[in-house]
Design brief:
132 residues, single chain, 5-stranded parallel sheet, 6 helices, globular, alpha/beta, 24% strand
């Protein structure tokens, strides 16, 4: 079984694009399992991951494609959390969403996807909002 960690934020279109990228994997039709991860950096309302719109939309798309899913939530630095969960769950691949940022924006705010790509010890699939 090929296990993918799908790290999603609140953005519906990006979460669906990430789910579609996984659905399009050649192994997906036969033997893929997905762990959906949402890392809260600030959660004053006490929401849980299944309440996050991006998580729900990605889960719906994956389940419609008959891909087994489970949901994990965490808090803290998103890049560190993604890498920790990937290691703990021994996933085969990490899927993150890319977003357009200016070079200055990347320098000032960083990029979760960039941090994961540069630090991960396993393949990283980056899916942008423009997919399918």
């Amino acid at each position: 079984m090929y296990h993918v960690l799908l790290a999603v934020d609140e953005t519906e279109s990006r979460a669906v694009a990430q789910a579609n990228a996984i659905i399009d994997l050649s192994e997906a039709k036969a033997d893929v399992r997905v762990t959906l991860l949402h890392s809260f950096t600030d959660n004053p309302s006490g929401a849980s991951a299944p309440q996050v719109t991006g998580v729900r939309r990605a889960k719906d798309a994956l389940e419609a494609a008959k891909i087994e899913t489970d949901i994990v939530e965490a808090s803290g630095n998103p890049a560190d959390t993604i890498l920790d969960v990937a290691e703990d769950r021994n996933v085969d691949c990490i899927c993150v969403g890319g977003r357009k940022r200016s070079p200055a924006g990347k320098a000032l705010f960083g990029s979760v996807a960039q941090s994961v790509i540069l630090t991960a010890k396993r393949p990283v699939l980056v899916a942008g909002e423009g997919q399918r």
